[in-house]
Structure formats: structure tokens, C-alpha cells
Amino acid sequence: MPGLNKIGIDGDALRKPLSGVGQYIYNLCCELDTLLPNTEFFIYTRLSAEEVAIPASRWHLRNESNGLARKLPSFLWMKTFGLALAKKDNLDVFWAGRTIHPGLSAAKEVVITVHDLNHKLVPETMQLATRLSHKLWFDKDVKNATKVFTNSQGTSNRLQEWVGRGADLVIHPGVSANFHPLDEASQASATAALAPLGISAPYLLAVSTLEPRKNMSVLIDAFVQLKHQGAIAQHQLVLVGARGWQNNELAEKIEANKQFGIVLPGYVADELIPSIYAMADILIMPSKYEGFGMPVVEARAVKTPVIISDVAELIEASAGEATIIKAEVDALQQAILAVLDTPEANLPIQTRPANWHDSAQILTTGLVTTTFDRE
């Protein structure tokens, strides 16, 4: 495509296992590979090839060969060694999928995606290096980027409020085709596939990194209290996600209450994730704050009821198809019982959420118009 011959991206976003942001970037990149067959793609990262989820074999990996440089904090490396590597490739566009970009000299145009404003709203929940990097560079990089994309209108609104610049485009996460309701035969297969992970229906589900912003302590307290009341005697609580950070107290609480049916399955293969959603009685997200809420969209796609905290971005992700609560133990207990009592009244029934191809087409439009505007 004229004017869009070379695109570079921040490869640390593709670190395995993929985080929520990583899933967002990876799935969009896979679609970009199809939508832009004549474009060269370059990945810049401190990481080895084995540590990176590369979207397609034709993508060029530009990774760090210096052992000492590989130990630098991610964003500091990107702004120094990553910038030097990018400048050699004469890029048309650099897409900074984690917001902080290497510098305007990295490409003819630099576009960024903002996923959340954790460092402004809940800084205490972040890892130190990430918090410091955002304090140093976030505002400036948002203001000087050629274009700004966000994953939700809520994030765009907060960005306008806090930094004075909203999104040029909102690009919602998509849902892969393998997220769909299960028929009876598929449910039997899913039951057998999930058993080795210690997961058996009925169960409540949370999909998130175990870190303070996710507010898992409220969910565990609500679950354990319902167990003591004998209200959900047969249910497990399945917590899918990375172990996270700043969570020693949470880990102790989980360990102390495992006898009530709390299951941490550890690493879960991607092909099993849709089944975990589809077999759950409820997906629960009691987060203090989210930039969007991909698990909400994925649960909607498989027709699993959803309970969320009253965070604007989660409400946006739910599209009116969730039970919304204050993230408090009593409110969550009541919501769980209400949904379990009348599950058919809480099933997501509206149109299927957007797929990744649709979202990537919006991204492609943003990238192409960036280069055309320049020309």
C-alpha cells in the first residue's frame, strides 16, 4: 500500500505469556498481517525470539544482543537501544502498543494506544518500574504522538480529562471465532478437558492477573461467606490468570480458603480458554478500575452471565449485558445469588461483540490515514 511500506511495533507488548494488553496487540497484529500484505513489519524488543509471540513468520524481529542492555527496564530500553534500532529501518509508522514510545525520530509518524490510566487513578497497584516510567513519559508521549488510539471511549474520556487529549480513534478489543456457546456434545468434551486442571462445574470464574487493582480479595471474601452460609455448596471459584504482584496477603487468603473450592489452574492453553468461559455459571470482575474489560466481552460471546463493578469502562464493555454492583462483599454476594437463582434472565442476548478483523480494519484506517495525511 503506497505510503505504508514499513511499520514498527513495541515487541515487549508481545511477551509470553500474553497479558490482556498482549492479547489485544497480538490479535490486532495477526489481522494487520492479512490486511496489509505488502507492508513490512518490524518488532523491537529486549527479549529473545522464544519470549515473543510473533504474529507471522514474515515479521522481522529486532531484538537486543547486548546482555547488559537486556536487563534495562522495558521502557528505558525502548527509548534508548530500541530507538537506535528503529531509526536504522526507516519506518513509516511506529505503533507503540503500550503507550510510551521510543521517540519521534523512530519513524516518520508515531502512533500510540492507551489502554488505561492506572498510574493516575490507582498508582499504588502498579509495579515500581512501570509506575516511574509512566510518571516520566506518559503525558509527553500522549501529547506529541501523531495519533492516539484507545481501547474504549471511557479511556478516551479520562485521557481528555487528565492529559488534555482524547483519542483520534477508539478501537475496542475483538473476540475470536472460537468464543461461542457450547452444545451438549461440546460441553461433555469441555468437562473432560478441564478436569486435569482441577476445574469442574458448577463454578464461578474470574479471569485476571492477581494484582491489587483487580480486587480479588472482595470476590474471595464473598465466595467464602456464601460457602459458610451453605448457599453455593457445590460451586468452585476458578481464578485464571498470572500470579501478579503486591499480592502476598491475597495469596495467604487463597491458601487459607482452598478447602472451599478455590482453584488456581496455573497456565491454561489458549484453546481451553473459551471452554472455561462457556462452562462457568458467572464471570465476575469486581475491579477497582479497568481500561476496558476483555473478559466481559469474551463471556458475552459464549453467553455466560457477567457481574461487574460500577466502573465506566467495564459498563462500556458489557453493552448493557451485565449485573452492575458496588465492589463490596455484601453487594457481590447478593448479585451472585440473584444471577444463580434466575440465570436465564441474566444471559447476554444482544448481538455478538466485534471480532478482531473488524477492530483491525479500524486500526488500519487510522494507520493509513496517518500516512496519507502526511503526504
Automatic annotation (TrEMBL):
Biological process per Gene Ontology, one example term? lipopolysaccharide biosynthetic process
Q: Which SUPFAM superfamilies match?
A: UDP-Glycosyltransferase/glycogen phosphorylase (SSF53756)
* Organism superkingdom: Bacteria
Q: Which UniProt keywords apply?
A: Transferase
Task: Identify the InterPro entries for this entry.
Answer: Glyco_trans_1 (IPR001296)
One GO term in the molecular function aspect is: glycosyltransferase activity
Kindly indicate whether the keyword Transferase belongs to this entry.
yes
Domain Glycosyl transferase family as annotated: residue spans: 202-345
Recorded hits in PANTHER family, A to Z, give: GLYCOSYLTRANSFERASE WBBK-RELATED
Q: Under which name does UniProt file this protein?
A: Glycosyl transferase family 1 domain-containing protein
Q: Tell me what organism the protein belongs to.
A: Oceanisphaera avium
